[in-house]
UniProtKB/TrEMBL annotation:
GO terms for cellular component: cortical actin cytoskeleton; plasma membrane. It comes from the Eukaryota. InterPro entries: WD40/YVTN_repeat-like_dom_sf, WD40_repeat_dom_sf, WD40_rpt. It comes from Buceros rhinoceros silvestris. WD repeats lie at residues 11-52. This is Lethal(2) giant larvae protein 2. GO terms for molecular function: GTPase activator activity; myosin II binding. The keyword Oxidoreductase does not apply. GO terms for biological process: cortical actin cytoskeleton organization; establishment of spindle orientation; exocytosis; Golgi to plasma membrane transport; regulation of establishment or maintenance of cell polarity; regulation of Notch signaling pathway. Residues 422-433 have a biased composition (Basic residues). Keywords: Exocytosis, WD repeat. Belongs to the WD repeat L(2)GL family.
């Protein structure tokens, strides 16, 4: 498992939230717990040439007549390594034992809270100490012992053979979870206030030890935060979660990622800047979005100086004055980085505004970046700035205010929404036994969408469909950047080029001269502006694409270099496709004369939000495939548009138009699949292709 396309699916008959999933060791089985307190046993079975999850058993844990629901409300599940039983911790503090074969409770093996209390110190001998089992963990070296953690902080090591407590540990904070070290000599407890502790399992010591090497701080955040689950790894593994999808195109040695979160970069940037406590300081919000970090993959730890360059996008133009925050100061001297992606050069934009677009050409060793003030080109092989271009219009004063205050307010609303969701989960699970949890989360999600909509600064979403004035704010905001080897000066010679599209409907094209490999480090990369196109309707440019002589989009250079894509046709005439929020327009190259266009329906208020080229293969033969545009609009529908004739092929309703966060988070793959967030912690997957369907077709022997 873990390879692309290896997945299995099962669907509960009940329309209830899945609260927990646990694998049965070595059995191709798993157990699910729903918020109605029902347990379900699933097995992987072959059916119609594929393996699928089939439900084998289900049952709901019931207490004696007249007992409150909390008596049997399941809070923790432990599948035992014997593969014979499950241990179920409950809100009442009792632990029930379920036989897997029959999927029924073994009444005579229940571990009662009274039995536990008989063996603990007087400080914890009251009944409330054993309320709500928060965690159950089997000893990694001794299957006859399990660790039981109670919500109020009491932790006991229970002997299953002799039915007694062998060790007990008295925590002072509300417990969230427990994790064993692999040798079983110690375990880690996580607590509701963000703290954690390491406990040795010995007859002499019952006090926690300091955690010196696990993470850099004894508390992950200020105030309550439900420490997340973790294994004892180095800190960057704990603190850098990312949502990403692999592009299935560049081979296992050069795998490339479409990354929709920059959390991973924040860790590296924090090291480069020397931020002592990036994870709960204001520095964290400034580290990444306002700079460009160029990183390379290294299999080993390394210590080196991160080179630094500055790009002044205003170029000392008169009449402009930045009113935002100052740039961050870089760290002097070498910085040590763990194996993985390691920064080797940092480009700081001046003014230090949010980086709105990026493009990387791995063969030419160039990276282009854009902000609300302009764009620039950086040679990361020579570590030299090639050029910058200011795109500000005299009316763009709002772009000089500095986005930090708006970013802060958006982050604050997002943080508050996440905390509300987390609190609703904790309170519903611990206080009300799961009832109402789905509605709480739904309410929090609705507030999340509402907050996000109010705080979003992408003003074009709210504009009417009409020709825009050059006086509109943020016209210089760079929306898209694109590298292409095409015919820009004349029809006989092709050359590298960089294209940029702005919020005001302007497209800039620069001819590039990249020295050959043998002189790459000796001669500078040169750039000269060759074209400037102004769309009449001045709608924001969201995509730029060059089609080769066969009207096929230019392939990714890295794919061509590794024989994963055919080389483009450089004999016939190339064409330029410019996608704005309101229309698609094809131009001839190199003259840049208009050839054809497709307008979106103005009456519906429809606007392009995301666009990508998708390759659609035939489900009946491997000999046929075609490239089309996959387009997501602000109404949440997806349109497939043919290339190069711009004919609307089909339209699918996909995301609710009110779901602003879902539309904003949507990403496409190059084979016509996609993902979008349906809540802050869940994503939906869809496919537009009959060949690459969402339904998994995998077999487990």
């Amino acid at each position: 498992y873990g390879a692309p396309g290896v997945e299995f699916m099962g669907l509960h008959e009940e329309n209830n939230t899945v609260m927990q999933i646990h694998f049965i060791p070595d059995q191709c089985q798993l157990v699910t717990l729903l918020d109605d307190n029902s347990l379900h046993l699933w097995s992987l079975k072959q059916h119609s040439g594929a393996s699928e999850l089939q439900e084998e058993h289900r049952f709901t844990l019931k207490g004696p007549p007249g007992s409150p629901p909390s008596a049997t409300q399941i809070t923790a599940v432990l599948p035992h390594s014997s593969r014979e039983v499950l241990y179920l911790g409950t809100e009442s503090g009792n632990i029930f034992v379920v036989e897997l074969l029959s999927f029924r409770v073994l009444e005579d093996r229940t571990i009662t809270s009274e039995a536990v209390l008989q063996r603990v110190s007087d400080d914890y001998s009251n009944r409330r100490s054993c309320e709500l089992v928060e965690a159950l963990r089997e000893h990694p070296k001794n299957p006859d012992q399990i660790l039981i953690g109670y919500s109020r902080g009491l932790i006991v090591l229970w002997d299953l053979q002799n039915n007694k407590v062998t060790h007990h540990f008295l925590g002072s904070q509300q417990l969230e979870n427990l994790y064993w070290q692999r040798d079983g000599s110690k375990f880690i407890s996580c607590h509701y206030d963000g703290s954690y502790a390491q406990w040795p399992v010995s007859s002499e010591n019952r006090q926690p030890e300091p955690l010196e090497n696990l993470v850099p701080y004894g508390q992950l955040a200020s105030g309550p935060s439900s420490v997340p689950g973790f294994s004892p790894l180095l800190s960057h593994h704990l603190l850098a979660p990312c949502l990403q999808h692999p592009t299935e195109t560049v081979g296992e040695d050069h795998q490339c990622w479409e990354q929709t979160e920059h959390s991973l970069l924040q860790y590296a940037a924090a090291r480069a800047y020397g931020v002592a406590d990036c994870w709960h300081s204001e520095s964290c919000s400034k580290v990444c979005p306002f700079q460009v970090l160029v990183m390379e993959l290294n299999d080993e730890d390394a210590e080196h100086v991160v080179d630094h360059a500055e790009a002044d996008l205003l170029q000392d133009q008169e009449g402009y004055r930045w009113k935002g925050h100052e740039k961050l100061k870089t760290r002097d001297g070498p910085v040590r980085f763990e194996a993985g992606f390691q920064p080797f050069v940092l480009v700081q934009c001046q003014p230090p505004a949010v980086v709105t677009s990026l493009a990387l050409h791995s063969e030419w060793k160039l990276v282009a970046f854009g902000t609300s003030h302009g764009f620039g080109l950086f040679d990361h092989q020579q570590k030299r700035l090639v050029f910058v271009k200011c795109t500000l219009h005299p009316s763009d004063q709002l772009a000089l205010e500095g986005p930090l205050s708006r970013v802060k307010s958006l982050k604050k609303s997002l943080r508050q929404s996440f905390r509300r969701i987390r609190r609703s989960r904790v309170s519903s699970r611990k206080r009300r036994g799961g009832s109402g949890s789905a509605s709480e989360v739904q309410e929090a999600n609705a507030k999340f969408d509402q907050d996000a909509l109010q705080e979003m600064e992408l003003a074009p979403v709210q504009r009417k469909i009409e020709a825009r004035s050059a006086e509109d704010s943020f016209t210089g905001f760079v929306r898209t950047l694109y590298f292409a080897d095409t015919f820009l000066r004349d029809s006989s010679r092709h050359s590298p080029s960089l294209w940029a599209g702005t919020n005001g409907g302007t497209v800039y094209a620069f001819c590039l001269r990249v020295p050959p490999a043998e002189r790459r480090m000796d001669e500078p990369v040169r750039a000269e502006q060759a074209k400037e196109i102004q769309l009449m309707h001045r709608a924001p440019v969201v995509g730029i694409l060059v089609l080769d002589g066969h009207s096929i989009p230019l392939p990714e250079p890295l794919e061509v270099a590794h024989d994963l894509s055919k080389s483009p046709d450089m004999q016939g005439s190339h064409q330029l496709l410019v996608v704005s929020e309101e229309q698609f327009k094809v131009f001839t190259l190199p003259k840049v004369s208009s050839k054809l266009k497709l307008k979106l329906t103005a009456l519906e208020g429809c606007r392009v939000r995301k666009v990508t080229v998708a390759n659609f293969g035939s489900c009946k033969t491997d000999d046929y495939s075609e490239n089309d545009l996959a387009v997501l609009t602000n109404l949440g529908d997806i349109q497939i548009i043919s290339l190069p004739f711009l004919k609307l092929q089909i339209r699918y309703p996909c995301i609710r138009k009110e779901d602003v966060s879902g539309i904003a988070s949507c990403v496409f793959t190059k084979y016509g699949q996609g993902f979008y967030l349906i809540s802050p912690s869940e994503f939906e997957r869809f496919s537009l292709s009959t060949k690459w369907i969402v339904e998994p077709r995998c077999i487990v022997d």
